[in-house]
Design a protein that fits this description.
Order of helices and strands: EHHEEEHEHEE
Oligomer: single chain
Distance between the termini: 43 Å
CATH architecture: 3-Layer(aba) Sandwich
Largest sheet: 7 strands, mixed
CATH topology: Aminopeptidase
Number of strands: 7
Strand content: 35-45%
Radius of gyration: 16 Å
Structural class: alpha+beta
Number of domains: 1
CATH superfamily: Gcn5-related N-acetyltransferase (GNAT)
CATH class: Alpha Beta
Number of helices: 4
Length: 168
């Protein structure tokens, strides 16, 4: 498996992963009824952001998107999102995508990485982020309507890379 930049020919498989993850309704704040036309501009980042895939041969196992968390005065902090095909989970795909995104953001000169809405019951993701230095900055109680657990919290998580000097 290797992580590489998204290519237009990847979209059908990427859309399949997005549809699968979003319809499950247990890890992403996207509308489970989201259409392909709605998904594409949400997932495929315009430069200077980036969208990547984890591929094994011609098969896409997972995908990630990354870029600035906010525009303007918040553009020095990055963010990223990750999705892995159900039948590829537990094989290190998410970890590889996560590692790629963090290294990309560091290389681009971001001061840190912020995740705005990590579902607190998504233990695999939360534990991966905590193991790799992220902190839970806060949790919004009951902010996510989980399909089987009811309302659960959303974590805001952050990893500081280094302080950057203020731009004048």
């Amino acid at each position: 498996m290797h992580v590489r930049e998204f290519d237009e020919s990847d979209w059908p498989q990427v859309w399949g992963i997005i549809r699968e993850v979003v319809e499950a309704g247990d890890t992403f704040t996207y509308d489970p009824a989201m259409t392909e036309a709605q998904a594409r501009p949400l997932w495929v980042e315009a430069p200077p952001g980036r969208t990547v895939v984890a591929a094994e041969g011609d098969r896409i196992l997972g995908t990630a998107k990354m870029g600035a968390n906010r525009p303007g005065p918040g553009a020095h902090v990055s963010t990223a999102s990750f999705m892995v095909a159900a039948d590829a989970r537990g094989e290190g795909v998410g970890t590889a995508l996560f590692g790629y995104a963090v290294e990309w953001a560091r290389g681009e000169g971001y001061a840190g990485m912020q995740f705005n809405a990590v579902v607190d019951t998504n233990r695999t993701a939360v534990e991966l982020y905590l193991r790799n230095g992220f902190q839970i900055i806060g949790t919004v109680p009951g902010a996510f309507a989980h399909p089987t657990l009811g309302r659960v919290g959303l974590h805001v998580m952050y990893l500081e890379f280094w302080p950057l000097p203020m731009q004048e």
